[in-house]
């Protein structure tokens, strides 16, 4: 539980549901509630009293507003559990639900919880709020160098969650880097026309006189990966590099080519 008590304005409780299947997830960073962290620093900057919790707990504040995040649709049970718990415990609080599940299936949440405000998609109010990763005592920083995706895979929810494609430059990204270990949450890192600059920048950048190590939450698009990209990814100290093989065997040739570069 992380609480900050600034000038009293509004009591805001930020909730990450306790995902019962989370322990089975290999990559802890995948579960990092980046959006919720942005809300945390947004409310602190407004002078609100903010409390960030995981699961169904009794916080140190009596919340006026409760914001619950959500993740994969197949973990929705834990989100409903959190909604039910906080609705019953704080019937007068405004409850908002956002995140991936809320973006993909807002009607499912609304159907069962008419008093809850569902917020699908990226919240523009907090999108550009800076997260202080040291304050959160995290040793891995999550970054986005781009949003959206240039592909339109039928099974993928990215076009619903991040319909607008945006790119950052190395100059913009450099200002955001706070830690030595970074996980990129980009859906398709290589689609960014600035990705070569970014990789070269990371290679030469230092935080506390130490190099940066990177990982990508998503696999790399084999249709975009070039020999030069493979070299730059290694120079930028990307570990656990994976190829995203999203389609059928017709992609075999292009996947094989990408693997040969790596
Ligand atoms: S390439 Fe990946 S992120 Fe992009 S639409 Fe396809 S599955 Fe989604």
From TrEMBL:
<keyword id="KW-0949">S-adenosyl-L-methionine</keyword>
<keyword id="KW-0408">Iron</keyword>
<dbReference type="InterPro" id="IPR007197">
    <property type="entry name" value="rSAM"/>
</dbReference>
<dbReference type="InterPro" id="IPR051198">
    <property type="entry name" value="BchE-like"/>
</dbReference>
<keyword id="KW-0479">Metal-binding</keyword>
<dbReference type="InterPro" id="IPR013785">
    <property type="entry name" value="Aldolase_TIM"/>
</dbReference>
<dbReference type="GO" id="GO:0003824">
    <property type="term" value="F:catalytic activity"/>
</dbReference>
<dbReference type="GO" id="GO:0046872">
    <property type="term" value="F:metal ion binding"/>
</dbReference>
<dbReference type="InterPro" id="IPR058240">
    <property type="entry name" value="rSAM_sf"/>
</dbReference>
<protein>
    <recommendedName>
        <fullName>Radical SAM core domain-containing protein</fullName>
    </recommendedName>
</protein>
<dbReference type="GO" id="GO:0051536">
    <property type="term" value="F:iron-sulfur cluster binding"/>
</dbReference>
<keyword id="KW-0411">Iron-sulfur</keyword>
């Amino acid at each position: 539980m992380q609480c900050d008590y600034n000038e009293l304005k509004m009591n805001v409780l930020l909730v990450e549901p306790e995902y019962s299947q989370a322990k089975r997830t290999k990559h802890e960073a995948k579960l990092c509630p980046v959006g919720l962290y942005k809300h945390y620093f947004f409310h602190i900057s407004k002078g609100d009293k903010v409390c960030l919790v995981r699961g169904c707990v009794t916080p140190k504040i009596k919340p006026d507003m409760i914001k619950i995040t959500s993740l994969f649709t197949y973990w929705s049970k834990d989100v409903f559990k959190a909604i039910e718990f906080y609705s019953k415990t704080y019937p007068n609080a405004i409850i908002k639900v956002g995140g991936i599940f809320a973006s993909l299936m807002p009607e499912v949440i609304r159907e069962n919880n008419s008093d809850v405000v569902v917020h699908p998609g990226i919240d523009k109010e907090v999108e550009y709020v800076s997260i202080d990763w040291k304050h959160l005592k995290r040793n891995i920083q999550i970054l986005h160098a781009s949003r959206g995706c240039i592909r339109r895979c039928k099974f993928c929810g990215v076009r619903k969650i991040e319909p607008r494609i945006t790119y950052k430059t190395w100059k913009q990204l450099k200002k955001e880097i706070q830690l030595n270990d970074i996980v990129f949450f980009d859906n398709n890192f290589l689609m960014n026309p600035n990705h070569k600059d970014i990789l070269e920048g990371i290679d030469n950048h230092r935080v506390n006189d130490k190099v940066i190590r990177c990982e990508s939450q998503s696999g790399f698009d084999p249709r975009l990966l070039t020999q030069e990209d493979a070299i730059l990814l290694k120079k930028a100290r990307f570990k656990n590099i994976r190829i995203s093989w999203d389609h059928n065997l017709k992609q075999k040739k292009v996947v094989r080519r990408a693997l040969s570069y790596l």
